[in-house]
Design a protein that fits this description.
mainly alpha
């Protein structure tokens, strides 16, 4: 081989090494970018899931508050009915006692 041919082979080998290093660097940059993008998407999904969880909790609390109010209203109606019944019986008991006292 002539000196010129050896220099040409050496240049080609150096270019091949440089091209390979450049390609490896591009791959590393692409992987790093893909990892950053994947992490960003994961954070976004986590954030959205947390917001959905908060909304579901808010809705559940609202339903629970409505149910509690309905239970309180029902208890108040039942309490009113029991007081009215007790008052009726109290009046009857007072009349009975007065009647017994008067008869004796």
């Amino acid at each position: 081989m002539t000196m010129e041919a050896i220099e040409k082979v050496t240049q080609i080998e150096e270019k091949a090494r440089a091209d390979k290093a450049e390609a490896e660097a591009r791959v590393r940059r692409a992987l790093a970018e893909a990892e950053r993008e994947g992490e960003a998407q994961l954070q976004k999904a986590r954030s959205e899931a947390a917001e959905q969880g908060k909304e579901l909790l808010r809705q559940a609390e609202a339903r629970a508050a409505e149910a509690a109010e309905e239970i309180a209203r029902k208890a108040e109606r039942e309490s009113d009915a029991l007081r009215a019944a007790a008052k009726t019986h109290l009046d009857e008991a007072a009349k009975y006692i007065v009647g017994r006292v008067v008869k004796s």
